[in-house]
Amino acid sequence: MKDLLIIGAGPVGLYAWSCAGLMGLSGYIIEGNSAPGGQPAELFPDKAIYDLPGIDKITGQDFVNNLLANTKKYCGNMTLLLETKVSELTEINDGFAVKLSNNTVIEVKTILITTGNGVFTPIKLEQLDSNVTYQNLTYQINNPQQYHNKKIAILGGGDSALDWANHFIEEKITSNVTIVHRREHYRAKESSVAKLQQNQVTEYKNYHIETITTNGELITEMTLIHNDDNSLVSLQADYYLIQYGAKIAPSVISQWPLTFTRANKIIISPSGQTSHPRIFAAGNIAAYEGKYYNMATGFGESINALYNITKIIHGEKYHPGYLGADLQ
User: Fold this and answer.
1) Global pTM?
2) What kind of fold does domain 2-120+246-314 have according to CATH?
3) pLDDT digits over 266-285, tens only?
4) What is the DSSP pairing of strand 119-122 with strand 105-113?
5) 145 a known binding residue?
6) Which residues form the FAD/NAD(P)-binding domain (predicted)?
């Protein structure tokens, strides 16, 4: 029986993988997608991240690559399984028998869930024909240089929408960026809000889409309407980027005997432990009162959970040592 199963190989899972290896734990880390990295690799590989300790800025993919480089050095006896999900969970003596989607069964003493926000699909515009693929509409940026010197309209008011608006201008991809938000106040970092004005991004706040005009597979115009005075604005752009967030598909974990919030996040104690003594959680899937959700928070939660997992494996008096020493 192995020590640990980590479920999810996004940033928090990758960090936990390295730390578990350094702590001498054996086991597996599984990822449902064909490549590790989670949201930074899938949704914003070329967008800069600014809120990581000791790093001025780094793209999502470069940060994932750095995490993967660490796992190659420190993974120890932890094995990565891609395109693999949990199908069934059965309690056995001192642990679990876990049936995977490839029909193999592994036995582990503990589980650390780092699935982030789970399997997500972008929230799409309801006004458009769902059977048509519009050539100038996107929900995800894969190649920012494609938009060089183009007129960009971004719809959304969260961190991702504002980050892209500022990124396009600061990286000199284009100087013509408009952002549309249905509320008066953004749901984003104040520093990002201030940058919109510094970067001279055109802002339409408290507006929503009234109509969309199309010509075949192209959007030619969006008509915006103000929520209070019903004034109309014509919005024309070369490309429209929709950043309304994502719908989260429930996973088999939601059926496990754990305590969940209304938002389907797992409630954890200060040790990272869930309502089951051998199951822990860290990152965006984990919840407790007063939590601020970002990657740095998840990294702290994962190392804390692993510390307490070692006590289950080796006994309450065990201490794994400090991971910053003698790594060469």
Assistant:
1) 0.77
2) FAD/NAD(P)-binding domain (3.50.50)
3) 999 999 999 999 999 999 99
4) unpaired
5) no
6) 3-289
Q: What backbone phi and psi angles, to 5 degrees, belong to 156? A: 145, 160
Question: Do 2-120+246-314 and 124-242 have matching folds?
Answer: yes
Per-residue pLDDT tens digits for 217-263: 999 999 999 999 999 999 999 999 999 987 766 678 988 999 999 98
Name the fold adopted by 124-242: FAD/NAD(P)-binding domain (3.50.50)
Q: How many CB atoms lie within 10 A of CB 318?
A: 11
Is 61 labeled as ligand-binding? no
44 marked as part of a ligand binding site: yes
Give 324's pLDDT tier (boundaries 50, 70, 90): low
Phi, psi at residue 165, to the nearest 5°?
-60, -45
31 is in an annotated binding site: yes
Q: What is the mean pLDDT of residues 12-34?
A: 95
pLDDT for 248 equals: 67
Question: pLDDT tier at 98 (50, 70, 90 boundaries)?
Answer: very high
Burial of 326 (0-12, 13-18, 19+ CB in 10 A): exposed
Beta pairing class for 2-7 and 26-31: parallel
Residue 300 phi, psi (nearest 5): -65, -40
* Separation CA 313–CA 320 (nearest Å): 11
Domain boundaries, the chain: 2-120+246-314, 124-242
